[in-house]
Amino acid sequence: MNLRFQTKRLLLRPFQDSDLELFLAYRNDPEVARYQGWSVPYPRQAALDFIAEMKTAQIQPGNWLQLALELQANGETIGDVAIHQMKSDPRQAYLGYSLARAYWGQGYASEAIRAVLDLLFAELNLHRVVAECDVENEASWRLLERLGFRREAHLHENIFFKGAYGSEYHYAMLGRDWKPND
């Protein structure tokens, strides 16, 4: 499957070796890492291993795939979008994302997620896509709601995360509810 596609301002593509320094920069930003599953400092070797794995990863049940988000204007890597097709039900997937702080609030995450939802629903014919976020991550849950995700659960102090219990919102969207890009 071709995992290179463009939006108005972005190229979504597999990671490549040249992404290392920009990837490390946003992974080591405490504000970017705040609601993510990694800790700061994010080790260089972990980044090398991650990129090596993602360079050849494909969408397949049970695996995570993360695509780099590259600005078409200058070739800069500004974040990534994660897809995990469920092994127990391959017509469902989890979605995740992270973006370098300098690019927050400019519509890049929305643009990238719309492109991925087009891929998952229109090309792969998935039934349902799920996303989770910390209840304190207002920018993230507002983004999901703007895109048409439905909040299905508010789990109170359900996860021990970075030294404390946190609460999460669970969102989902059905394929029949997705409105593709024009």
Rounded to the nearest angstrom, the distance between the terminal CA atoms is 23 Å
Provide the structure class: alpha+beta
Q: Tell me the CATH superfamily.
A: Gcn5-related N-acetyltransferase (GNAT)
- Read across the widest sheet, the strand sequence of neighbours is 1-2-3-4-5-6-8-7
Spell out the helices and strands N to C. Answer: EEHHHEEEHEHEE
What is the element layout, followed by pairings?
Layout (H helix, E strand, L loop, with lengths): L4 E2 L3 E5 L5 H8 L2 H4 L10 H11 L9 E8 L5 E9 L6 E8 L8 H16 L4 E7 L3 H9 L3 E12 L2 E11 L8
Parallel strand pairs: 5-6
Antiparallel strand pairs: 1-2, 2-3, 3-4, 4-5, 6-8, 7-8
Describe the 3D structure.
By secondary structure, the protein is an alpha+beta fold. The chain has one domain (5-177): 3-Layer(aba) Sandwich (Aminopeptidase), CATH 3.40.630. 26% of the residues lie in helices and 34% in strands. It is built from five helices and eight strands; from the N terminus they run E-E-H-H-H-E-E-E-H-E-H-E-E. It has helices at residues 20-27, 30-33, 44-54, 108-123, 138-146, and strands at residues 5-6, 10-14, 64-71, 77-85, 92-99, 128-134, 150-161, 164-174. The chain has an eight-stranded mixed beta sheet, sandwiched between helices. A hairpin with a 5-residue loop joins strand 3 and strand 4. The longest helix is centred in the middle third of the chain and has 16 residues, at 108-123. It is globular and about 40 Å long. The two termini are 23 Å apart. The model has no long low-confidence stretch (mean pLDDT 96).
